Amino acid sequence: MNEEAAQLRDSSPDEYGFFASLPSLLQEEDAINEIVYCLDVLKADGVTLFTRYGSDNHYLGHPNFARIWATLNERSAVVFVHPTHAVDTNLVNSHLPQPMIDYPHETTRTAIDLVMSKTVRNNPKCKIILSHAGGTLPYLALRPAMMLPHTPFQVGMTPETFLEDARSFYFDLALSGTRYQLGALLDFAKPGHILFGSDYPYAPSAAIEQMNRGLDDFTWSSEGKELYHAMQANALRLFPRLAKSSLSVPTANKSGKVALTNAYFRSIIVWFAVSSLLCLLSLRMAPLYWSRF
After folding, report:
1. What is the pTM of this model?
2. How many domains would you assign to the chain?
């Protein structure tokens, strides 16, 4: 799969890129070998991880994954984190599939685990992208930061250090086009750390289009007017080889607005969509996503 993705990238390198798919992180040596091969030989643009692995709570800050993170850090890797099901897959409500509510919480759990385990601090060269605007992290980060010094669970972090590491993530905007989410994320994220995302093709198309219309409207408001051009610039800084492309930001239409739903930032968005598609298909997770809709 990774070799096929590399061939696709090579067919049009100005438009395509890919995140490498890895074996389960519980297979440490296999995962490390694939990281080395994909980043050093295939020249993947990054790797994809799920929020947890195994039949127990092996979230990404688990000590068993320390060597894997060290390998990624040595290569200044871009690491795209996508949520998967929690260990308990029982639905809270028969009409509430896990991707709708549980996935954002899974992203938050693994992000907090990465911070509290000092995985983020110990691997500063890794650029970690969280899906879906970071789940609930922008809203909840202050809660553990303020509570930690007053609990028995000391991890040797001040509230300031905790928040600094929590804000170091990058955030994609897949299915996160509401004014409420975007306002909170803009207040929380470091400058240059917000990226476009769509969740295509796994989320329902109508939901993707609605979210992108919301994002389009927000970027044309006084609150979000700088976000549109910033998202492309942020992606190009993260993936500088794509900056050599002649493709540019779409211009405004007759109404004066840029239709994000149709434009998708061209090379950047196609790149994210293809890489996400390949990594998820390789793990055969697609049937689990929206099968209960």
Report:
1. 0.85
2. 1
